[in-house]
Structures are given as C-alpha cells and as structure tokens.
Amino acid sequence: MQIALELACGVLIGFTLGLIGGGGSILAVPLMVYVVGVKNPHVAIGTSAMAVAVNALTGLVSHARAGTVKWKCAAIFAPCGVVGALIGAAFGKAVNGQKLLLCFALLMVVVGVLMLRGRRNKGEAGAACNRQNMPRVMMAGAGTGVLSGFFGIGGGFLIVPALIACTRMPILNAVGTSLVAVAALGASTALSYMLSGYVDWVMGALFVAGGIVGSFLGTRAAKRLSGSGAALTTFFACVIFTVAAYMIWKSLAAL
C-alpha cells in the first residue's frame, strides 16, 4: 500500500508539472509530509526537489516536441536561477522545518493572487527574450532561484508568472520554458540537500516513476487547454490556494 501510495502521489505531481509547468513541488512537499508520512520536512524538501527535477525533464520532452519552449529565454533564466538556488538552499536548511513550510504556504498565496490578477492577459505569441528585457529576465531568474533553493522547490509556480511578467509570452510558452528552469533549479537544490543527507532515494524513485506517467497525461491536457489561457491560469491559482490553505492549517497546528 505504501508503494502504491507513493506512485499515485508521483502521478499527481507529474500531471501538475506537465499541465501548468509548476505545482509539482507545492504538491510534492505536502504529499510527502501529510500523506506519505515523512517526519522530517527537510527530507521531504530534498527528496521532492530531486523527483520534481526528473519529472520536469520528462514533461520538457513533450513540450519541446510541441514547440512551446522558448529556448533562448530558458538559456538566460536557468543559469541565473541555479546560482540563486544554491545560495537559497544554504539558508533554507538552517531554518526550522515547520516554520519553513508555513512561510512556503504564505508565499504560495501571494503568487496565486498575482496569477489571478493577470489571468486575462493572453500574452504575445511572438514574445521572446531580447536586449530590452534581458536584465529583467536575469534578475527574475536569480530571484526565483533564491526562493526555490530556500524552500527546496523546483519553483515552477514562481517561474511561470515571472516569465510572463518579463517577456509577456503566452502562458503555454511560459509553462514549456519554465520546465528547463524547474529541472535545473530542482537538481541544484536536491544536490545541496543530498550533501546534507536529506534525500530519500527509494521514495524519490517511486515518485519519479509515477511522475513520468503523470507528465505525459498533463502535457496532453495542457495542449487541449492551450486556447484558454485564462482557464489554465485560474486552475493554476486554485491549486496553489488549496494546497496553501491546508499547509497553513497544518503548520500552525504543529508550531
């Protein structure tokens, strides 16, 4: 039953990553803590970062085939994010696990509100990274990297709105492009936590196995919803609010 539970959680995480390019980590951490029963939040964070990084690569393959990835933007955003993630992870491991989960949930609420405010923005189909917006893209990459490393997440739910804000690209392109950065940031964060002994490899492998199936299903669903950016954005925000509310409740109860 435990193996089946971890595989099912992996499918859900992979589906969310494939569908909205984010949400994998915001689901992975609470699923590991509150459903699977991981006692140490830092182990949940480190293991989820590893699993999300691998699952993001799986989703990236499908999005790349569909032509939704803005590779130039990804090449600028991801390296800046990796540097920030390594810095953030060093600070995150020094913070109490329950307090870290509570701060994580509050950040999710802020991002969800910002996403809903811009849900009617369809973006510009030809948007790309250029000399004018490159500094903003680099700063956004470094900033989301610090937060991703600090909270031990792939950061897709931060990266997607950041890419849209910096370049005005449509959400489907932001989803596809974000997976490059999610994989890079997740791997960087996982490496940092692994060196501190905070990665459960067996559980991570089961989450990855389920995530491969989920990523395939989520990417197909994203293509069907691509004509309705507002619907995809609203769904994204609803996922964030739901998980954040539960995490705040559980974290406050544990403090």
TrEMBL record:
<feature type="transmembrane region" description="Helical">
    <location>
        <begin position="137"/>
        <end position="165"/>
    </location>
</feature>
<keyword id="KW-0472">Membrane</keyword>
<feature type="transmembrane region" description="Helical">
    <location>
        <begin position="42"/>
        <end position="61"/>
    </location>
</feature>
<feature type="transmembrane region" description="Helical">
    <location>
        <begin position="198"/>
        <end position="217"/>
    </location>
</feature>
<feature type="transmembrane region" description="Helical">
    <location>
        <begin position="73"/>
        <end position="91"/>
    </location>
</feature>
<dbReference type="InterPro" id="IPR051598">
    <property type="entry name" value="TSUP/Inactive_protease-like"/>
</dbReference>
<keyword id="KW-0812">Transmembrane</keyword>
<keyword id="KW-1133">Transmembrane helix</keyword>
<dbReference type="InterPro" id="IPR002781">
    <property type="entry name" value="TM_pro_TauE-like"/>
</dbReference>
<protein>
    <recommendedName>
        <fullName>Probable membrane transporter protein</fullName>
    </recommendedName>
</protein>
<dbReference type="Pfam" id="PF01925">
    <property type="entry name" value="TauE"/>
</dbReference>
<feature type="transmembrane region" description="Helical">
    <location>
        <begin position="7"/>
        <end position="36"/>
    </location>
</feature>
<feature type="transmembrane region" description="Helical">
    <location>
        <begin position="97"/>
        <end position="116"/>
    </location>
</feature>
<feature type="transmembrane region" description="Helical">
    <location>
        <begin position="171"/>
        <end position="191"/>
    </location>
</feature>
<keyword id="KW-1003">Cell membrane</keyword>
<comment type="similarity">
    <text>Belongs to the 4-toluene sulfonate uptake permease (TSUP) (TC 2.A.102) family.</text>
</comment>
<feature type="transmembrane region" description="Helical">
    <location>
        <begin position="229"/>
        <end position="249"/>
    </location>
</feature>
